[in-house]
Amino acid sequence: xxxxxxxxxxxxxxxxxxxxxxxxxxxxxxxxxxxxxxxxxxxxxxxxxxxxxxxxxxxxxxxxxxxxxxxxxxxxxxxxxxxxxxxxxxxxxxxxxxxxxxxxxxxxxxxxxxxxxxxxxxxxxxxxxxxxxxxxxxxxxxxxxxxxxxxxxxxxxxxxxxxxxxxxxxxxxxxxxxxxxxxxxxxxxxxxxxxxxxxxxxxxxxxxxxxxxxxxxxxxxxxxxxxxxxxxxxxxxxxxxxxxxxxxxxxxxxxxxxxxxxxxxxxxxx
Length: 270
Ligand SMILES: Nc1ncnc2c1ncn2[C@@H]1O[C@H](COP(=O)(O)OP(=O)(O)O)[C@@H](O)[C@H]1O
Ligand SMILES: [Mg+2]
Description:
The chain is an alpha/beta fold.
């Protein structure tokens, strides 16, 4: 299905994001430091259209820094980063960033719903900002997006009236409002109990299957990883210690993979 914005994006020269065999996202030699602290020390990573890639790593390992580069929230110090046909390290103007952000759904680490708006207004917000749809059409899409994440009849509630799991779903519905082709989930199960977390995992899987989106999931939740990952990338000391299947990760040679598996296996979701 042609998304709301992809035709528009194509017209703007951004090209198709679905080119079989060609990675959608290519990180090459990406470095990032803050003051004296080296966070990313040369990352090479390909992410393919339609896959779900899970980025694992302990807290503070640079997962958010790495993924927030995809929407320009963090700017690399060195290296190249391509998304579709766009080289993000040499984007000329705001217009290219805008198109890129419109095609990308970003679920922040905290759900970050606007407290002053109802749930429905939250989901409608990107449509009001970036589309020319009528009020009626927007209301229809809001219901559709909420239904997609398993929420119904909550449009008129305040975010604070929802449970943690429902807030996460509502934030996801807002990220889906513009039919993104790429969805980035930053710690989508953090702070949720295992049952609620499983529901989020099933939802991520279902969205990937139904919408054929490309998904990048940042987490240290192994249970979620097992549920959703086509491939896994483990970030450690500024580099990728492992990239491959989840099955392969369970038998990876790298000591950080062992430590990670040992530590996380015994822990609840945090
Ligand atoms: N804007 C910033 N200014 C200074 N340091 C930052 C900034 N953003 C991230 N960092 C540092 O970079 C490291 C990696 O952060 P982050 O990517 O958020 O880790 P995580 O893997 O937990 O998502 C941390 O040590 C963090 O303190
Ligand atoms: Mg983070």
